[in-house]
C-alpha cells in the first residue's frame, strides 16, 4: 500500500520526459549530431551490424522509443525487400518528424505507432527483433518494458538495447563529466532554446543502472544469452538478449 504516491511519481517522470521530447522534437536530429559529434551514427551502425536483418527472408522489426526514425531507417536499409519496421514512441511530435523524414522512401514497409514501452499495444510473438536506442532510461518502469519486449518477440527473437553507459577510462571520465554538465546544457540552450531539458537528459544518464546491473534485469525478464558490449570507452553500451 503506497497510497498511490509511487504511481504519481512515475506518472510525473513520464510527463517530464514527454515535455522534454515535445520541446526538442523539431531540433532533435540536429542536436543529436551536435552533442555526440556525430558519434551516435557510428553507435547505431554498430547495433545494426549486430542485428543483421535478413536480406532474403521476411523480417519484422520493432523499434521502441523510435523517435524520429533513425534506427528504423537503418534497419530498412540493411534488410531486404521483406523487411518491415514498426516505429513506436510515446510522443507524437517525435513520430511526426519521423514520418516526414521517411516520406515515401520505404513504400509501406514502415509504420508509426503511438504507444508506451511499458504497455505495448501490439500482439504477442510478432517480431523477429526489438530495438530500443537511447530510450529505455526514459521509461519509468524498465522491468515492465523488458517484459513487454519479450512478450512481443517471436521465440528466437532478438532484443538489442543501445544506451548511455558508464565511462570506464580514467581521463575520459573527467572529460565526459565536464562535457555533460557544462557543454550539453549550453548547446541545448543555444540550439533548441531549452537548457533545462538537456540538463534533465544528462541526469537521466547518471541515474541509469550500471551495465552489469542492467544485464541482470534483462535476464530477470526471461531473456537468455544476455551480453553487453561497451562502445567508445563506455560512453554507450549495447545490451543483447534472446527469447528462446
Ligand atoms: N531512438 C531514437 C534515437 O536513437 O534517435 C530516439 C531516442 S530519444 C533520446 C528517446 C525517445 O524515447 C523519445 O522519442 C521519447 O518520446 C521516447 N519515450 C520516452 N518514454 C517512452 C515510453 N514510456 N514509451 C515509448 N517511448 C518513450
Automatic annotation (TrEMBL):
Its EC number is 2.1.1.163, 2.1.1.201. Coiled coil: none annotated. SUPFAM superfamilies: S-adenosyl-L-methionine-dependent methyltransferases. It catalyses: a 2-demethylmenaquinol + S-adenosyl-L-methionine = a menaquinol + S-adenosyl-L-homocysteine + H(+); a 2-methoxy-6-(all-trans-polyprenyl)benzene-1,4-diol + S-adenosyl-L-methionine = a 5-methoxy-2-methyl-3-(all-trans-polyprenyl)benzene-1,4-diol + S-adenosyl-L-homocysteine + H(+). Keywords: Menaquinone biosynthesis, Methyltransferase, S-adenosyl-L-methionine, Transferase, Ubiquinone, Ubiquinone biosynthesis. It is an enzyme of class 2 (transferase). Pfam families: Ubie_methyltran. InterPro entries: SAM-dependent_MTases_sf, UbiE/COQ5_MeTrFase, UbiE/COQ5_MeTrFase_CS. S-adenosyl-L-methionine binds at residues 68, 89, 116-117. CDD domains: AdoMet_MTases (cd02440). Pathway: Quinol/quinone metabolism; menaquinone biosynthesis; menaquinol from 1,4-dihydroxy-2-naphthoate: step 2/2; Cofactor biosynthesis; ubiquinone biosynthesis. The keyword Methyltransferase applies. Belongs to the class I-like SAM-binding methyltransferase superfamily. MenG/UbiE family. NCBIfam families: MenG_MenH_UbiE, PRK00216.1-3, PRK00216.1-5. Methyltransferase required for the conversion of demethylmenaquinol (DMKH2) to menaquinol (MKH2) and the conversion of 2-polyprenyl-6-methoxy-1,4-benzoquinol (DDMQH2) to 2-polyprenyl-3-methyl-6-methoxy-1,4-benzoquinol (DMQH2). This is Ubiquinone/menaquinone biosynthesis C-methyltransferase UbiE. The lineage of its organism: Bacteria, Pseudomonadati, Pseudomonadota, Alphaproteobacteria, Hyphomicrobiales. The gene is ubiE.
Amino acid at each position: 500500500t503506497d497510497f498511490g504516491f509511487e504511481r504519481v511519481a512515475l506518472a510525473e517522470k513520464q510527463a517530464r520526459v514527454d515535455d522534454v521530447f515535445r520541446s526538442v522534437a523539431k531540433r532533435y536530429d540536429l542536436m543529436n549530431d551536435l552533442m555526440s559529434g556525430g558519434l551516435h551514427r557510428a553507435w547505431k551502425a554498430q547495433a545494426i551490424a549486430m542485428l543483421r536483418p535478413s536480406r532474403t527472408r521476411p523480417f519484422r522489426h520493432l523499434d521502441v522509443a523510435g523517435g524520429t526514425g533513425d534506427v528504423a531507417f537503418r534497419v530498412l536499409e540493411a534488410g531486404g525487400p521483406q523487411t518491415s519496421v514498426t516505429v513506436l514512441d510515446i510522443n507524437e511530435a517525435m513520430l511526426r518528424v519521423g514520418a516526414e523524414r521517411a516520406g515515401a522512401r520505404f513504400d509501406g514497409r514502415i509504420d508509426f505507432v503511438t504507444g508506451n514501452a511499458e504497455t505495448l499495444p501490439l500482439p504477442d510473438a510478432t517480431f523477429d527483433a526489438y530495438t530500443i536506442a537511447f530510450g529505455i532510461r526514459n521509461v519509468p518502469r524498465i522491468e515492465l518494458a523488458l517484459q513487454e519486449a519479450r512478450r512481443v518477440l517471436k521465440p528466437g527473437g532478438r532484443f538489442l538495447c543501445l544506451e548511455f553507459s558508464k565511462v570506464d577510462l580514467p581521463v575520459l571520465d573527467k572529460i565526459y563529466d565536464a562535457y555533460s554538465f557544462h557543454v550539453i546544457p549550453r548547446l541545448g540552450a543555444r540550439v533548441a532554446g531549452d537548457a533545462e531539458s538537456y540538463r534533465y537528459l544528462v541526469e537521466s544518464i547518471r541515474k541509469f543502472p550500471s551495465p552489469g546491473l542492467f544485464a541482470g534485469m534483462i535476464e530477470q525478464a526471461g531473456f537468455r544469452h544476455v551480453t553487453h558490449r561497451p562502445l567508445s570507452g563506455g560512453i554507450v553500451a549495447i545490451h543483447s538478449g534472446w527469447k528462446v
